[in-house]
Amino acid sequence: MIASGGQGNSQGSSQESRARPGQRRMAQWTRDYVRLPGIPDEYIADNGAPRPVWARFFDAFAALSPADIERRFASADRHLHEAGVTYRAPGDTSDRIWPLSHLPLIIDAADWRQLAAGVAQRAQLLEMVLADLYGEGRLVADGAIPAAAIAGSSEYLRAVSGIKPPGGRYLHLYAADIGRGPDGRWWVLGDRTQAPSGAGYALENRLVLSRAFSNLYKSMNVERVAPFFEAFRDSLRASADRDEPRIGLLTPGAFSETYFEHATLARYLGFLLVEGDDLAVSGDRVHIRTVAGLKRLDVLLRRVDSNMLDPLELDASSYLGVPGLVEVLRKGGVVVANMPGSGVMEARALLGFLPNLCRRLLSEDLMMPHIATWWCGQKSAREEVLSRLDEFAIEGAYGRGVADFPGNGPVLPGELSAADRDRLKDAISHRGIDYVGQELVRLSTTPVWENGRIAPRPFVLRVFAAATPSGWTVLPGGFCRIADRADARAVSMGDGAVSADVWVVSDKAVETSTLLPAVDTVRIRRIAGVLPSRAADNLFWLGRYLERAEATIRLIRALCTPLRDPARANSNGSAPAMHSAERIQRMLVAWGAASQTARANLAKVALEALQSEEKFGSALSLVRSAQRTAISLRERLSPDAWQVITEMADRLAIEVHDDDGVVSAAELTLQELASFAGLAQENMNRAAGWRFLEMGRRAERAVNTTRFARQFAYDEAGDEDLDVLLTLVDCQITYRSRYLVQPLLAPVRDLAVLDPYNPRSVAFQVAALNEHIAALPSLKEHGLIERPQRLAVAVEAMLTTAEASSLDVKTLFALEQDLLNLADAIGLHYFPHGPNASRPEKLTGLA
Questions:
Q1: 428 with 387: CB under 8 angstroms?
Q2: Which candidate, 34, 594, 533, 573, places its Cα nearest to that of 293?
Q3: Is residue 631 part of a domain?
Q4: 555-574 in b/e burial notation, b at 16+ Cβ within 10 A?
Q5: Are residues 453 and 430 in the same domain?
């Protein structure tokens, strides 16, 4: 017994010693954490003690060493950068890296069940209100909703009134912005019914944080989000009128503030990412312009505002929509989620009427309250607000912000000057329909990690609900935005806020889930689906930009390498003759890579051509053009391919100061370009998308190689010029293995231009182009050869029958023009733009 007791004490001491570092760390983190007066907090409960779910999290978190924690934080940040997770704040002209809080927002299962029930009830209520507003109109007729509260909203679309939504629903996806009210319960701060954003970022937040803290994530039994997205995808499929529908996600384009999210959702859900220009109306259907002709689209998940969807019947100035879309909706030809006009339910003017509407339509009270709101379009409410003006926050009744006052948030009359306060009162008195008064509230807080400690910061949680045949399914988690100031009254991603993953924690183990269905429920197919013309266009130009950057970098290296390393000079061991260097510089100037004034200084030409911000033809500018093009292809590029392009752009932006630095940067970039080419060859499915990427590369390489040959294999070219050409087309070793003599004109011309076995020759590129064009579907029904193939066959025939001795400068220039015409013909044939774009294409609406 004594020995047993001694052993027990020893184990207890050991456990205590192991616990002490974690306990000390925990005490250090929380020492200065003070709940803000009168504000609910996620970590500290009303009784002043940590909530059990947070105590459980921090106990596990404290088991990690400080070094391990920082390493995992750095891993999360690095993933965001390498994966290119970005957003664009309002007014920005460039993307920002997505700001992710290193701590999640944690909610226990019991709390979440109440929250989810309230969100599902609210979604159903708003669906029923929308059905009445655009249908029978009983609510307005009976006075349950004032007509002015609806008519005052620009989101009420009369063109849609009376249309029964194809698929049977107005709302397919609903979101509520929520926070804890003064009583500690969850309160609704706002409804999102237009085209709710944030679900894609919520998914990305989960991927990043669950990887950085994988063991902690598993031990906390966090509810998985994949079943929600699966239910949402299946619901959209079921809403269509055929078994295997084609679903598109309509985006405003790459300049949208949340374009990354659109690409993420399209890739994750398996939808086509389309822009308005990709779509065309024919008959009673919407079709996608693809490289194989028009293909029927069954469901459109929109991320474009309602009034921009159809320039014929809605906003005539819109370039984002599809002419004729509303008429197709009348005919039931396409499902649009959410239905145009659904954004009317976001109006704050309607908030005060929802409790009575809930009792009328659902025969029950609202489960989740919202901020007390007085719509000033009613006399009694207006007088109430004006009599106690300093006790309210004034908001726009139908949009963010208040007209004629700065900012997008509420106006606090108590903080205004006397003149501004009077101006606000006059505005409310004369046109109260545009204003609401809302109860003054401050956002509840959640812990964030700051300088090795936790601190309370205000947050807003956006919770998503998807309509399914069995009811509303709520995402177990959400999109959380956290302010960077302790006194924030509103949180926007453009105001220095960060986002956080949301963990709904269960008391028992959760099942691992995936969006991939069971193998036996899916019909096997080997082609990924249709390729929109816009995507093909971007792939084609991505290949051209990268190949053009490679050609520029090879010129830079040829100009600088001999000065840096005499051992790597031309065949006779000396630097290039001055006329060869002059030709290289002249090409770089002609290509827009360097300025005419820099030609007197070889080093300056090389430096400008490598990383000039102003020169459109510099290597940096070309890689950035490729990066911008790749942004429009996010749903089609692998993370590795995107990372290579990002690293190239980052590397070329690092300032260099001498020839050695220029050549080093050039060689590293050439290696990265080779890496991208390898990824495309080995990892891309051999479908139409890969072919257009390859066609862009082959067309550009053929043009550039012809230009190289014209400049350095002219009739009087000496061995110095010919040696430069062999270097530019990467054929030094091949030439020397074939010919045991110095570079001679005819063999060099043959190798660079005519040799079908040389993967860098013009002939090889044209043969590859011909093969790709022949493999693409014909857009004409008469069976005649189409123009791109006709040009490619003609150029290939010329190269096949030509002799090296006949390739003078005039012939090479004519070949260059033929290649440029071929590239243009591909673009005109497969990539028409605009609603009036015409081309011969078959209508394959049932395909």
A1: no
A2: 533
A3: yes
A4: bbbbbbbbbbeeeebbbeee
A5: no
536: nearest Cα among 465, 642, 633: 633
Cis peptide leading into residue 821 (ω within 30°): no
Question: What is the three-class DSSP state of 587?
Answer: helix
Q: 553 and 404: one domain? A: no
CB 168 within 8 A of CB 332: no
Query: Within a domain: residue 172?
Result: yes
Q: Is the pLDDT of residue 542 over 60?
A: yes
Q: Is a pLDDT exceeding 70 seen at residue 471?
A: yes
CB 531 within 8 A of CB 291: yes
Radius of gyration of the chain (CA): 32
Shared domain check, 413 and 538:
no
Query: Structural domain tally of the chain?
Result: 3
**pLDDT tens by residue, 123-156:** 999 999 999 999 999 999 999 999 999 998 999 9
* Mean pLDDT taken over the chain: 88
Q: How far apart are CA 98 and CA 89, in angstroms?
A: 11
Does 245 reside within a domain? yes
Question: Do the Cβ atoms of 560 and 666 come closer than 8 Å?
Answer: yes
Say if residue 677 is in the same domain as residue 621.
yes
d(CA 814, CA 807): 10
pTM of the model: 0.87
Hey, what are 491's tokens? 């949180």
**Parallel, antiparallel or unpaired: strands 445-450 and 502-505:** unpaired
Q: Is the pLDDT of residue 339 over 70?
A: yes
Cα separation, 350 vs 133, whole angstroms = 12
Q: How far apart are CA 813 and CA 26, in angstroms?
A: 73
Residue 378: CATH number of its domain: 3.30.1490
Tell me the pLDDT band of 699, cut-offs 50, 70 and 90.
very high
Write down the residue that tokens 């012809």 correspond to: 706
Cross-strand pairs, 176 = 191, 463
Give the pLDDT of residue 492: 58
Phi-psi region of 699 (alpha: psi -120 to 50; beta: other; left: phi over 0): alpha
Within this chain, do residues 241 and 149 fall inside the same structural domain, yes or no? yes
Quick check: 669 and 553 in contact, CB under 8 A? yes
Q: What percent of the chain has pLDDT over 90?
A: 67
Q: Which amino acid is at 767?
A: A
Could you identify the residue written with the tokens 């003017």?
349
Q: Report the 10 Å Cβ neighbour count for 654.
A: 9
Which is nearest to 624 in space by CA: 633, 638, 611?
Answer: 611
Q: Report the alpha-carbon distance of residue 614 to residue 340 in Å, rounded.
A: 43
Q: In whole angstroms, what is the distance from residue 274 CA to residue 277 CA?
A: 8
Here the tokens at position 484 are 């960077």
Burial 263-286 (b: 16+ CB within 10 A, else e): bbbbbbbebbbbbbbbbbbeeebb
